[in-house]
Amino acid sequence: MSGVDILVVAGLGALGALIRWGLWLLSPEAGRPWAIVMANTLGGLLAGLAIAGAFGSWGPVLAAGLFGAITTLSTLAVDTVEQGQRGVGAAARLLSGHVLGGIGGVSLGVVLGSVVGSVLVG
Which alpha helices (DSSP H) does 27-87 contain, by range? Predict the structure, then answer.
């Protein structure tokens, strides 16, 4: 990995964090935990596309930088604890949304990436 690769991944990581933060800011306060579910699902979907090769040689760079930064375990943990203060059910629903959204996003991304790859390659 070259110094340029490191700078590109770092720059994409910063962009991904800004996207996640923007989703959070644009959401009404009560919906902010769910905005992060959306960010995690989107990051998972795009990472799945990257894993399937839809972005060619850029896949690992995008997955590690941009898509990895859109998703976040630390925000998941904070939001789950905050929801837990409202009740175990609220925390469980939010956590389920993150897990199912993330896994669903990656799975869908892999399927879509495989289809796109087979269409482009022939």
Answer: 32-51, 59-62, 68-70, 73-84
User: Helices 32-51 and 73-84 sit at what angle, rounded to 10 degrees?
Assistant: 150
Q: Residue 49 and residue 58: Cα distance in Å, rounded?
A: 11
Angle 21-78-94 (CA atoms, 0-180°, nearest 5)? 90
Cα separation, 109 vs 54, whole angstroms: 9
In order of 4, 46, 56, 82, the CA distances from 120 in angstroms are: 29, 18, 11, 45
Whole-number Å distance between alpha carbons of 28 and 18? 17
Domain ranges in the chain are: 3-121
Please tell me the predicted confidence (pLDDT) of residue 25: 92
Mean pLDDT by 10 residues, the chain (122 residues): 87 94 91 88 89 86 90 80 92 94 92 83 67
